[in-house]
# Entry
Amino acid sequence: MSERIPATNIPVQTVAPAHNAEPIVTKSFRGRYRNLRIAGGGLLFGLYFVTVWLSWDGRQAVLWDISQRQFHIFGATFWPQDLTLLTGGLVICAFGLFFITVLAGRIWCGYSCPQSMWTWLFLWVEQFSEGDRNQRLKLDRAPWGVTKLWRRGQKHVLWLLISVATGLTFVGYFTPIRPLVSELVALEAGAMSLFWLFFFTAATYLNAGWLREKVCLHMCPYGRFQSVMLDDDSVVISYDAGRGDPRGHRRRELAPAEAGLGDCIDCQQCVQVCPTGIDIRDGLQMECIGCAACIDVCDSVMDKMGYRRGLIRYASQRQLSGGPLRLWRPRLLAYAAVLTAMVVALAWGVATRDLIGLEVAKDRSLFRYNAAGQVENSYRLKLLNKASEPRTLLLSVSGAEALTVNGQTRVRLAAGESRELAWAVALAPEQLHRVSSELVFSAIDAEQSGQHASRVSRVSRFTGPPGS
Ligand code: SF4
Ligand code: SF4
# Structure
């Protein structure tokens, strides 16, 4: 078994001015990992903002309808009874995160986490409105005037617009978005919709505009787990100390060997671009969110110096010590096998889930005699059509000879409709062989036939008089 990498908790360093209370002002940079994040982020933003407007079968394609307790996703409808499937999906996501962390560190944080993606978007707006790092530091120090008011105002207006769009979209996944927008335009939106719209707008504005890396450093537990999950073969963002040290400034025309130095020119650019304000050269730290900004900027420094790229790069501890890259070790293979099994089980569960819901509740009264002298028990049958089209259900009960049913046995339900039926089941006293016996209630789709017909069964008890 590989050894765990100790992820140190080095106090966060900020870049000029350097103390923890000061906000981190990052420098802009270019590079291939930045391009990758922009491409991936663009796709994720597109999915988030566009999906909510898609329709399917005349209904919003993705909608968590809280009032109806239904989750619609592209023609499929899930009900509270399908909670185990949702739980399974969440467990798979959590396990997938473990898997990807063991494989490649915090790439989820760097490339897909909503907190990171919105923070990068807000940072881009800040740079657009106020300029690069030095201009922003200068603007910070400048007295309030027209220029400062204009630049700051522009930034906050853009942040607010993005926040409103984010909040509205989020609420739109829980309340149909087209009617919601119409109500907002007509100033007729309900108090609940307005509250959640305000809440998610404020949350976006505060988290991405003001709190930023503090959410990652102090609120998100994921960074704390990484030292447990990473091992010597995890591919993480690393500074190659063997190649970079001793660090120091030198004239460009001087080769590192001639200057008696390593490849790191100690330009501090990797610190200046870091959104959490750390120095990756101090080793793997809990504060590192794996954004690869330091790789991009250091590569550009290496290019300028005419050195080989990759002084900071994705590498395992084993590789940095001169060993081979070992991606598929037993631990990761075991994780992959478990993850695959869970995904297959969930897919099977979704594909074969019951589209008929049936619950049977026996009345509290034990039994009674009906007019024909039979022993009778009462039940409430709750039926649900989970399909997106109407269904006719045939109801039956079995478990004893010569059962008679007083209640509806053929029911037509609209798509998504639920209905409650009162049933009385009666048995002749001579058919009763014990005080309590088992009955099986079934609902079957009348429009299907044979063994492939959708059917659901529930077990309940039939109670007779003492001495039966
Ligand atoms: S950007 Fe590269 S060269 Fe500059 S200080 Fe960081 S590691 Fe050294
Ligand atoms: S150390 Fe590098 S990868 Fe980690 S958060 Fe800072 S810039 Fe991003």
Q: What stands out?
A: Residues 9-19 have pLDDT under 50 and may be disordered.
